[in-house]
Amino acid sequence: MNLVFLELETQGQEHIIEVGAVKVRGGKTVAVYHSFARPAREILPGDEVLFGVTNDHLVGAPPEAQVRKKAFEFIQGCLVVTFSPDPPDLEAALLSKAEESGFFDFHVETLELQPVAAKRYPAERGYPSLCNVAEYFGVYDPRTDSLSRAIILKKLYLELGLPY
Predict the structure, then answer these.
(1) For residues 133-157, b (16+ Cβ closer than 10 Å) or e, as one string?
(2) Average pLDDT score, the chain
(3) Taking the model in full, what pTM does it have?
(4) Domain boundaries in the chain?
(5) May I ask the CATH architecture of the domain 2-159?
(6) Distance of CA 11 to the CA centre of its chain
(7) Any idea of the CA torsion for 20, 24, 28, 33, to the nearest 10 degrees?
């Protein structure tokens, strides 16, 4: 089975502005996908964008619909590994727009690492952040782009001893 480690940056929870994904088969990386996406409107000073994406990053980026379609093609038929349980950005920004992107009856299985990591991460109650868990397990990377975070997910998956 192919695994895809997926990280998204969204504008609000509906519009994708960056996708980072790493596809793994048999423990080996077989493909990567990274793209910024031009959203419906520019990022305004009050917008909540967690990882520092600015309008400068989005200059010349393909339209969001095109990035979403490529992301669907990339993850189709794979187990998608994310960090947060039931990630609202994945659901709202990607999966809920499958038909709009030409993917009918699209279904993907997801595995959320946050609850698994939380059981072995003693420093915080509840659900810790990806950065804190990555640092604890020695797989932290200070780069904040979606592809770097997807690579952190892959390393964390290995550190947690989960099967490929």
Answers:
(1) bbbbbebeeeeebbbbbbbbbbbbb
(2) 82
(3) 0.85
(4) 2-159
(5) 2-Layer Sandwich (3.30)
(6) 14
(7) -30
pLDDT at 139: 93
Q: Which of 90, 134, 88, 127 is nearest to 109 (CA)?
A: 90
Distances (CA, A) of 32 to 71, 108, 121: 11, 18, 28
Count of C-beta atoms within a 10 Å radius of residue 30: 10
CB atoms within 10 A of CB 81: 24
Give me the residue label for tokens 């947690």: 160
What is the distance between the alpha carbons of residues 47 and 139, in angstroms, rounded to a whole number? 29
The tokens of 121 are what?
Answer: 């991460």
Higher-scoring residue by pLDDT: 87, 83: 83
